[in-house]
Amino acid sequence: MPHNYYTRLLQFAQQFQNYYDRQFLPLLERTGLTMRDIRVLLFLINNPDYDTAKDITALRGLSKSQVSQAVDLLVAEGMLRRTPDQADRRVIHLSITDQGEPLAREGQTIQDRCSQKLLVGLTPEQQEQFRAYLRTVLDNGIREGAFQ
Length: 148
Prior knowledge:
The structure is a single chain. The chain has seven helices and two strands. By secondary structure, it is mostly helical. A two-stranded antiparallel sheet has the order 1-2. A hairpin with a 7-residue loop joins strand 1 (80-84) and strand 2 (92-96). Helix 3 (35-46) packs across helix 5 (64-76), helix 3 (35-46) crosses helix 6 (101-118) and helix 4 (53-60) crosses helix 5. It is globular, with a radius of gyration of 17 Å. The protein starts with a helix and ends in a 5-residue tail after the last helix.
């Protein structure tokens, strides 16, 4: 595989992160939240089976302090709720409140628009095929420990 492919892939990852973050600027300005806060909300709404700060830290790649600060703020703003685990009181589950759900859904809409812009020109079948390939590549990376 040509080395140029790797360079372009790394460049794409950096540029996409910048592009993605810019799409949230109007939401951030309107709400006063940070991208860190939005990332926590989006993680929780997009990954309902993973609902602890530890999950967010491990799977989203945010530091413990970033997650802790975001959770504290979102709880104070009434957008998240903490619930102790019934079996292990040391484990705290996080859930989006009725007040936080519209904001989380708005964030998902922004995510969807980002995806749609990147897939322009592909048929619905090609888009699904691309998503299937991407899932395979990401699963391979996780299995091989590449994303730890």
